[in-house]
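We were asked to recover a plausible sequence for a given structure. The inputs and outputs are reproduced exactly as logged, with field labels preserved.

PROBLEM: sequence recovery
POSITIONS: 306
GIVEN STRUCTURE:
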């Protein structure tokens, strides 16, 4: 029996003698959660035209050097590494399980796992064993839940860029930075690892979340970014926009061609400066008259120790 629906009792909203005045419309069903609608990419859509999924190196990196990439990154990694032309390919869902088969064929040099701490403790998701067999590197980003990803995106991006730009290590003695490739994977390969790649494109290619999502999904059709992760990526996009604004403001301030009058901190001008400027302006004599008050003043400090 429902304790809230006793025989012989009616709700106050249905009692004609009740003075209760409803102010909200109630429903027995749970309220629907607001959904995040993903708009189409900003690039134009044409049938069988994959150009909208191409990636092109941006003209600038509008973030502080050292946060997502080391200062030496752009000296050792060519901009051509970010140019990639999308192609129409045949893809089946079973192909998502064939990652280990093309590690050697594709020349993968780093296996980066995006995994839960529970999977890490159980050693269920790890590339260390395969990496040791192939003589390549392996690393992992461990999180308690997806919400932690927004704080781990910068570390994952920096780890990828450090691998691409670092000098040869004992594990990579036969590869140069130009030959480095990273495989980002997770428990399913559908969301967490894909979100890291999307975040990477947003940072390094200055893409918005929607375009980055479509580019990744076009190359891996099984990618399924659920609504909570979409909101997380949208929040990360807002953070990146704020970081870009701060970095641009700093660089504009330090740029040698910037108007010095807008950059220098105003300092209090001395009386001699005021008098000099007044002397150059014959029509302005008020400055000199004001300075006469200080001619006969004792130059000593107003307070002295005894």
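RECOVERED SEQUENCE:
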């Amino acid at each position: 029996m429902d304790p809230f629906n006793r025989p012989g009792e009616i709700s106050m909203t249905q009692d004609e003698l009740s003075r209760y005045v409803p102010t909200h419309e109630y429903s027995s069903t749970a309220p629907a959660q607001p959904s995040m609608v993903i708009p189409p990419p900003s690039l134009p859509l044409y049938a069988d035209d994959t150009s909208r999924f191409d990636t092109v190196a941006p003209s600038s990196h509008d973030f502080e050097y050292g946060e997502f990439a080391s200062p030496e990154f752009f000296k050792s990694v060519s901009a051509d590494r970010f140019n990639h032309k999308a192609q129409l390919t045949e893809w089946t869902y079973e192909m998502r399980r064939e990652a280990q088969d093309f590690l050697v064929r594709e020349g993968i040099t780093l296996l980066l796992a995006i995994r839960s701490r529970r999977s890490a403790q159980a050693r269920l998701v790890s590339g260390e064993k395969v990496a040791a067999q192939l003589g390549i590197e392996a690393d992992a980003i461990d999180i308690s839940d997806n919400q932690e990803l927004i704080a781990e995106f910068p570390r994952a991006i920096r780890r990828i860029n450090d691998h691409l730009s670092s000098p040869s290590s004992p594990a990579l003695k036969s590869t140069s930075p130009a030959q480095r490739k990273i495989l980002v994977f997770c428990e399913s390969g559908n969301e967490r690892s894909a979100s890291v790649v999307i975040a990477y494109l947003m940072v390094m290619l200055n893409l918005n979340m929607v375009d980055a999502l479509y580019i990744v999904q076009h190359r891996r059709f099984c990618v399924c970014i659920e609504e909570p992760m979409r909101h997380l990526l949208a929040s990360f996009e807002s953070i990146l926009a704020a970081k870009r604004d701060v970095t641009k403001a700093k660089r504009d301030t330090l740029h040698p061609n910037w108007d010095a009058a807008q950059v220098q901190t105003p300092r209090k001008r001395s009386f001699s400066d005021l008098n000099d400027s007044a002397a150059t302006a014959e029509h302005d004599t008020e400055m000199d008259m004001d300075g006469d008050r200080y001619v006969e003043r004792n130059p000593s400090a107003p307070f002295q120790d005894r």
